[in-house]
Write a structure and sequence with these properties.
CATH architecture of the largest domain: 3-Layer(aba) Sandwich
Number of domains: 2
Organism: Chelativorans salis
Pfam family, one: SBP_bac_1
Structural class: alpha/beta
Keywords: Periplasm, Signal
Main location: periplasm
Helix content: 40-55%
Protein name: Sugar ABC transporter substrate-binding protein
Shape: globular
Number of helices: 18
Length: 415
């Protein structure tokens, strides 16, 4: 649904920024999580801010991730804007271009004890434009392999973490074990794309890890990379796993790692909050290596203040509060930090009681070495243009190379 932010919508949003709206009695903060553990943590951080600012109330408003950009855009353009909120990394350039988010530079530079330099330049890259800071990353989260250890043990297979620590966790080994763990008669698959949405809202999350591991990319410097040989080979491997090996949950089927119907999935550590209810022993491991070696892929999410807020200064102060060192340490249990001081401390590796430190060290390593998912000022239009071409790709008889050439033809005008 993020693809619904079309150029027309962005233009309408930009034109509507001057329109007035009713005064908010509190700070409305949009998020895409409805997870109880996440919201309890966020409300705890807000309680501290409210105590420091009597009369202030911070209210977190959940919009599902798949609808987030579309519904947020409608609120901003329709006179019902939140004051601040979470922002996807690939959507940020479009919101900056539309003038929909406020600069945070002065507030962060003047916040007592904030230490803006503690955020590395790579971590801040997507959130700066022309010397101004428009967002602060609260989650710099690499994609990790979640695995069902019970399934690996029952099959007599070494799990991904063991293989990774032996230097044997490669894409070839990944394909081998995914196939071995698939049980069609029991509707058990070896692997499921992120949140089961790899054919829909999570296309980039599905294809970018193997593409990067093969040495390719989606686009760079205005040039499409989907039809480069490295990307073609990576996507061909996925296609064969879906339709020949039948080991990845296919289009139209609903697998669910968290309920035990898939042996592995790819996700970020915020999803560890779902694991206590899973009912099986589990773990996390790095992404498998490919011909290009290790290629961690990172998803980022940031905090922004919306230009139509009537409470801009207070909202900026809350972002400074929420991303100070103390609160970043609190959020680190679910959202890997961009603050170097926290990332390099025992506080981070011990932050999440659900994930052992020996597994969290792989998360920290991936943050330091990884590359953020592709972004672009016209990312919504790019994603909308490529979606039908990827739909055509995910058929058993499709020509992978021709399909990816069609993707490039479709998105080249936007690049």
């Amino acid at each position: 649904m993020r693809n619904a932010l079309t150029s027309l919508t962005v233009s309408a949003l930009a034109l509507s920024l001057a329109a007035g709206h009713a005064m908010a009695e509190d700070l409305r903060f949009t998020v895409w999580t409805g997870n109880e553990a996440h919201l309890n943590m966020l409300n705890g951080i807000a309680d501290g801010f409210e105590a420091e600012n009597p009369g202030t109330t911070v209210t977190f408003e959940t919009i599902p991730a798949g609808d987030y950009v579309q519904k947020l855009t409608f609120q901003l353009a329709g006179g019902n804007p939140p004051d601040l909120g979470w922002m996807f990394e690939d959507s940020m350039p479009a919101f900056v271009a539309a003038g929909a988010v406020e600069s945070l530079t002065d507030t962060l530079e003047n916040a007592e004890g904030y230490d803006l330099a503690d955020f590395s330049d790579p971590a801040m890259g997507l959130w700066r434009e022309d010397g101004e800071i428009y967002g602060v990353p609260f989650s710099t989260s690499p994609f990790m392999i979640f695995y069902n250890k019970d399934m690996f043990d029952a099959a007599g297979l070494e799990d991904p973490l063991t293989l990774a620590e032996k230097g044997e966790w490669t894409l070839d080994k990944f394909r081998e074990v995914v196939k071995a763990l698939t049980k069609p008669e029991d509707r058990i698959w070896g692997f499921e794309f992120k949140d089961g949405q790899g054919y829909d809202t999570r296309i980039m999350h599905a294809v970018m890890p193997p593409i990067r591991a093969y040495g390719g990319d989606a686009w760079s410097n205005g040039e499409c990379g989907f039809d480069d040989p490295e990307a073609v080979e990576a996507v061909r491997m996925l296609h064969e796993m879906v339709f020949e090996d039948k080991s990845i949950v296919p289009p139209g089927e609903q697998g669910d790692y968290f309920s035990g119907s898939s042996a592995m999935t790819i996700n970020q550590i915020s999803r560890a909050s779902k694991m206590p209810e899973a009912g099986f022993e589990w773990g996390i491991a790095p992404l498998p290596t490919g011909p290009a070696g290790e290629a961690p892929v990172i998803g980022q999410a940031g905090l922004v203040v919306f230009a139509k807020s009537d409470n801009k200064e207070l909202a900026k102060q809350f972002i400074a509060w929420m991303t100070n060192q103390e609160n970043v340490e609190v959020m680190a249990q679910f959202f890997p930090p961009a603050r170097v001081s926290v990332l390099e401390s025992d506080t981070f590796t011990e932050a999440n009681a659900l994930i052992p430190p020996e597994q969290m060290k792989h998360v920290a390593a991936a943050i330091k070495e990884g590359e953020v998912l592709p972004s672009h000022e016209r990312a919504p239009q790019i994603l909308a243009a490529m979606k039908p071409r990827f739909d055509a790709l995910w058929r058993a008889d499709s020509d992978v190379e021709a399909s990816l050439k069609a993707v490039c033809e479709a998105i080249r005008p936007q690049l």
